[in-house]
Amino acid sequence: MFDLELFVGRFHPLMVHLPIGFVVMAVLFKALDIRSSTRTYRPALKVSLLLSAIVGIVTCLTGLLLARSGTYPADQLFWHKWTGISLAVLTVFWYLVEFRWSVRPTVSYSFTALTLVLLILTGHRGGVLTHGASYLWEGLPVTWQQFFGHDPYEAEKLEFEISNLDSALVYEDIVVPILEARCYSCHSDRKQKSELRLDSPEMIQKGGASGDPLIRSDLDKSKLYHVLTLPLNEDEHMPPKGKAQLSKYEVKVIEAWIAQGGEVEKMVMHYPDRSALEEWYDDLMADQKLFSNELIPSQPVSQPDPTLIENLRSQGVLVQSVGKSSHYLEVSFMNVPNLEPELIKEAAKIKEQVIWLDVSGKNLSDQHLNELINFTRTTDLNLSRSKLPGNSLKKLSQLKNIQILNLTGAELYGSALEDLRGWPELRKVFIYLTGIPSESVERFLETNPGIMIDTGGYRLPSVPRDTMVFRFKG
Amino acid sequence: MISKLVKEFQKREVESTTRRHFIRDCVSGMGTAAFGAMMLSSCGSSSSGSPQLSARDLNPLAPQSPHFAPKAKRVIYLHMAGAPSQLELFDYKPELQKLHNQPCPESFLEGKKFAFIRGVPNMLGPQANFKQRGESGAWVSDNLPHFAGLADEVSFLKAVHTEQFNHGPAQLFMHTGNARLGRPSVGSWVTYGLGSENNNLPGFVVLTSGGKTPDAGKSVWGSGFLPSVYQGVQCRSKGDPVLYIQDPKGMDRSLKANVIEAINDVNQQEFMEYGDPEILARINQYEMAYRMQIEVPEVMNIDDEPKYIHELYGTEPGRESFANNCLLARKLVEKGVRFVQLYDWGWDSHGTGQSTAIDYGFRNKCREMDRPMSALLLDLKQRGLLEETLVVWGGEFGRTPMQENREGKKMAFLGRDHHTEAFTMWMAGGGIAKGVSHGQTDEVGYAGVEGRTSVHDIHATILHVLGYDHERFTYNFQGRPFRLTDVGGNVIKKILA
């Protein structure tokens, strides 16, 4: 079979360099011509422009043939195709403007400039098409790349929707998301490197250009398993070196799926050996909790006013975003020896963002508390070693989001625990050295069994080994 | 006196002129090099007279946000210098008992190098009784009766491995991520990254149990190529915590303030002229020393702690001991100190004498460690501090399942040689799961067979719970970014809460 279209089309990557060279040459001669008082450069300009126009048209034709092979994603192709065609047309018109029609010099100048701009755009779009969007930036320092809007740390996100591992479909729920994140960018409707598509079970079965079967329950004969497990440095290893790799657990999952013949119906529970799938799931769960933090609200928040933060810092208040990627703040009055209610009031201007609040070791009055109750988003409140007036916890019950409350060593009133009833999010309370009687703790826990109250006062009873000295008697 | 000063002034001036000339002459030739440095956006030292200063330069210990929200804000690192035997504490190997006193199989020795073992040593069975503890069923020996009760609070790493089998390099590796001198310690990295919370206390405090200091010297808490303000501040647990912390008799604090102000003014001028960032470090340290006078004597004083606390920790005020340091560590993190590093010593159980015998000196060391370290965990827990404090325990390597036979001879006492391939460490507190045992060694505890973790993995995990992505946490030095974890390290996900 002789595919003439494809054969000619494949010359496009070779041809493209000709118009690039000739157009640049034409622009150069035009520049020299403008500077020169004689007409010395006109013939050279004429030849290079003529050549630009001719090879430009030929390149366009080969390009259109190559595009028909369908290996390139349509949306990315669009820009390269039309800038390229415009460029060819433009060079023809430039030639006409320059040598056939008589126009004002400014018109030919603008044709020169426009051609150059279009050349750069076309070339770049073509580069993006063959080498990927980040090709040009990858050598730059990371900060510069981020400036150009490309984050090298951002890999394709792996997203799984699995509520119960047993009833998850191995192909659809596990294998597809892995292939999607790691393989589809080159082997799907986006691109078909080696004529391989992996985005449907039939296409996986069909395989790629080499014709080797991708899936065979005999792993040694399965090409997919082979390329995934080759050493990274081998040319055939997939994904290619430099691209995001499959984790060892993901490779094991694909291996288990291949060993089952690559079928698409089975659920995890139908697999005779589920160990690979279970290990993969454990790792996935571990990944998910890697950055989860119960103490950070899930809804986003606006950026706090930096001048307010500066103002608080100048008065010794520690104000810090909990992480560079978050607008939520932690605030501590650790370095403010005499805390005035006014300062808390000032801090309350950023109450929308404050989620961790440290007011430990302070002598607090009702005025202080009246200001503290504004921090309604706080999830972690530290009042340890502070002196608290009567009924203060009743007041603080307005802080509906508190999960952890540290009262260690705080001077409290006897019925304090009663005021903690009905705090909706409360999980842990530390009351060591508060003098709250144990009966009152027991009573509280009867109605609030989900809350952990640490009363402290731990002892390490004496054991014989505490005093046993080992000595050699020989 | 005056003439001396004038002379020094002239000398400095001459030095600075020549340097400037040199730089001016080299500018053209160094164009490319300078461009390279710019590309790496290296902040480093600027050699011109008007240094570009960031707010960070002027206040290097100001608190900073990590990459993402942390689970722990502070670290207490308990390092047992000399390397305790995992085989008598956490790694229970009944098979090893069966091989007791039999020659070591060749397969363990082929191509291997040991610090002292020569020829074919005998295997040494576990010299302790083990039991599974708590709900997690973690193995803890009867050498640690108190800690055994806390097995459900911590996560064990049973198959840590290292690259170094001598104390100095191994300690450097464990604390700086590199076996050779010059890298910042983990505490320095953390202080550099997060700054210090309490204005009146250093961000990174080091306490040693007295006796020997670590073989690797003070470099294990040094700042390496980071500015020297980030190095650990060693406090003494006996006598003045910091030398000359008290004002001399007849000199009041305001006089001292004036003195420091004057010195800092001079340093400031010096800095404006020469632009050496170390001068800033000096200014900051003078100011810190002055502020430390307020809080350090109080926080470093354990005399006023109640009796039940002394009973819990087994502390005796006025002594230099691991117990006192554990109590101090709690007091320091309570006051917002970022990184507290404890060094204990005497764990090098070779069996050369009674004090290093695995069945004598080692057991006595266990007694000295068991109560204080258990008390520390409990005390942090009851104060809510364990929620946000990471506690790390470990040595610089492990010990061999073989009995040491120094120079190929049978030794008077039972001992074990240095071992790099498998040992146990534990972590607890903020961001760490409770009661997990991760990793497993082979039947005799020679090498990890599952869940092996490297020193870089441990560093990556410490940085992770503090909110740092260890791969992005870098410092530019000598034209390239450096990491604590070099080019390795994976966060140990299995022990994260």
TrEMBL record, chain A:
This is Planctomycete cytochrome C. The keyword Transmembrane helix applies. Residues 11-129 form the DUF2231 domain. Residues 183-242 form the Cytochrome C Planctomycete-type domain. It comes from Membranihabitans marinus. The keyword Lipoprotein does not apply. Keywords: Membrane, Transmembrane, Transmembrane helix. The lineage of its organism: Bacteria, Pseudomonadati, Bacteroidota, Saprospiria, Saprospirales. It holds the Pfam family DUF2231. It comes from the Bacteria. The chain crosses the membrane at residues 14-32, 44-67, 79-97, 109-127.
UniProtKB/TrEMBL annotation, chain B:
The lineage of its organism: Bacteria, Pseudomonadati, Bacteroidota, Saprospiria, Saprospirales. This is DUF1501 domain-containing protein. It comes from the Bacteria. InterPro entries: Alkaline_phosphatase_core_sf, DUF1501. It comes from Membranihabitans marinus. Pfam families: DUF1501.
